């Protein structure tokens, strides 16, 4: 592949920057909106009386950002033209996500909420790939316009990465299904109208087949949002959910009955590579700010930048960022040309290394900035707290390494030894 960015993509990045400067940055700075981004942000964003969920004012500001980005043609960039997108490729999205994250904390790209002027819509991709015509008609445009929201319920109290062992069940009852079980860290539940619930409908615990996804209304009798988990990075939208004899029609089945894990894999593949790209961008932001500060900060009569104790850790991080940038872009480029399962190991490599890199870069930025770096008046602790979760969610580091090992040793993937 040609490692030089295509001229058209370079032009689009420049246009994206101009849009952010003209439409998004003024929105962030008007009235008192800066409170959502300065040292007060956790208090400004978090409704402590409502279980630690996002405040209405914060959600309204994000909503206005989405509307402006959609009107300007940026929000749906990575989606197919059939839903108003620009057919942006995985490679395009990797470059753009890195570019936006490298700008630092701002309304243009606040990954705490997975909000960005160039949106990430894994649920829309799932609907396009697996939804029935009726489901696409019911959900596609309402989801894109924020009139409906589909949450994601896979993890359970006793099962996270071992999803094939989930204990939520669904059994047939006439033409309906009856669902019983519980979900943990059910994302998006503070505003979800529906929940994508994964339940075992056949087979035995541990089998990959026999798990079915259902689109369940959150106001269905027996569906209970028990509480929201207070996490390292607030506010939260991750809930504990209980389902007691929840009845849904057969039309609620999402994708093929028994093939629900294919949906889950579709969800995580694109998310993982884009999270990796964002991790590289945020890491680069931390590195750049640290270099800038070290050149300006004078201690014992010399700039910090003169000292090897400051130079060498940043050299290591910069080297890793350069290496990962190439791997992320190459993997995204291959995802545009090959079935995803053929490069799933590379996606995992990108994801766990980039997630670790940004945490290390944020930690080193705190160290270089000294006491200021430890305060919330600088953004590094916020970057660390946000990206630390990705070393666990959607496949922990250990699970990602297991995937790579499976491909490397021939236990899984296209080179599997029968």
Automatic annotation (TrEMBL):
Transmembrane intervals: none
Acyl-CoA dehydrogenase/oxidase N-terminal domain: residues covered: 31-145
Gene Ontology biological process: fatty acid beta-oxidation using acyl-CoA dehydrogenase
GO molecular function, one term: acyl-CoA dehydrogenase activity
UniProt KW Oxidoreductase keyword: yes
Cross-referenced InterPro entries: Acyl-CoA_dehydrogenase, Acyl-CoA_Oxase/DH_mid-dom, Acyl-CoA_Oxase/DH_mid-dom_sf, AcylCo_DH-like_C, AcylCo_DH/oxidase_C, AcylCoA_DH/ox_N, AcylCoA_DH/ox_N_sf, AcylCoA_DH/oxidase_NM_dom_sf
Keywords: FAD, Flavoprotein, Oxidoreductase
Highest rank taxon of the organism: Bacteria
GO cellular component: cytoplasm
Family matches, as SUPFAM superfamilies: Acyl-CoA dehydrogenase C-terminal domain-like (SSF47203), Acyl-CoA dehydrogenase NM domain-like (SSF56645)
Domain Acyl-CoA oxidase/dehydrogenase middle: 151-246
Keyword hit for Flavoprotein: yes
Pfam families given in the database record: Acyl-CoA_dh_1, Acyl-CoA_dh_M, Acyl-CoA_dh_N
Cofactor (UniProt): FAD
Domain Acyl-CoA dehydrogenase/oxidase C-terminal: 258-405
Assigned protein family: Belongs to the acyl-CoA dehydrogenase family.
PANTHER family, A to Z: MEDIUM-CHAIN SPECIFIC ACYL-COA DEHYDROGENASE, MITOCHONDRIAL, MEDIUM-CHAIN SPECIFIC ACYL-COA DEHYDROGENASE, MITOCHONDRIAL-RELATED
Protein name per the record: Acyl-CoA dehydrogenase family protein
């Amino acid at each position: 592949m040609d490692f030089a960015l295509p001229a058209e993509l370079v032009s689009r990045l420049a246009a994206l920057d101009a849009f952010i400067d003209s439409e998004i940055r003024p929105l962030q700075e008007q009235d008192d909106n800066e409170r959502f981004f300065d040292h007060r942000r956790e208090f400004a964003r978090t409704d402590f009386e409502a279980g630690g969920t996002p405040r209405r004012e914060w959600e309204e500001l994000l909503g206005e950002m989405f509307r402006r980005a959609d009107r300007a043609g940026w929000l749906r960039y990575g989606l197919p033209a059939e839903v108003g997108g620009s057919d942006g490729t995985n490679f395009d999205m990797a470059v753009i996500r890195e570019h936006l994250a490298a700008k630092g904390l701002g309304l243009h790209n606040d990954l705490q909420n997975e909000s960005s002027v160039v949106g990430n819509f894994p649920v829309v991709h799932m609907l396009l790939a697996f939804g029935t015509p009726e489901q696409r008609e019911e959900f596609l445009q309402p989801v894109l316009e924020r009139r409906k929201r589909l949450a994601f319920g896979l993890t359970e109290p006793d099962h996270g990465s071992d999803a094939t062992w989930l204990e939520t069940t669904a059994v047939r009852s006439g033409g309906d299904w009856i669902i019983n079980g519980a979900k943990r860290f059910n994302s998006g539940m503070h505003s979800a109208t529906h929940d994508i619930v994964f339940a075992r409908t056949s087979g035995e615990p541990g089998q990959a087949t026999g798990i079915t996804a259902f689109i369940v209304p959150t106001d269905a009798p027996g569906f209970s949002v028990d509480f929201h988990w207070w996490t390292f990075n607030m506010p939260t939208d991750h809930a504990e959910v209980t389902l007691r004899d929840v009845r849904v029609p057969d039309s609620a089945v999402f994708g093929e009955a028994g093939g629900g894990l294919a949906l889950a894999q579709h969800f995580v593949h694109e998310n993982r590579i884009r999270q990796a790209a964002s991790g590289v961008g945020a890491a680069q932001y931390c590195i750049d700010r640290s270099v800038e500060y070290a050149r300006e900060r004078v201690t014992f009569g010399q700039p910090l930048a003169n000292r090897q104790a400051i130079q060498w850790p940043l050299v290591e991080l910069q080297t890793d960022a350069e290496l990962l940038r190439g791997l992320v872009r190459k993997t995204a480029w291959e995802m545009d040309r090959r079935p995803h399962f053929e490069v799933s190991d590379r996606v995992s490599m990108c994801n766990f290394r980039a997630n670790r890199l940004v945490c290390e870069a944020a930690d080193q930025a705190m160290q270089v900035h000294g006491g200021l770096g430890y305060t919330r008046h600088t953004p590094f602790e916020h970057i660390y707290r946000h990206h630390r979760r990705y070393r666990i969610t959607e496949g922990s580091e250990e699970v990602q390494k297991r995937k790579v090992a499976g491909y490397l040793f021939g236990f899984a993937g296209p080179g599997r030894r029968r």
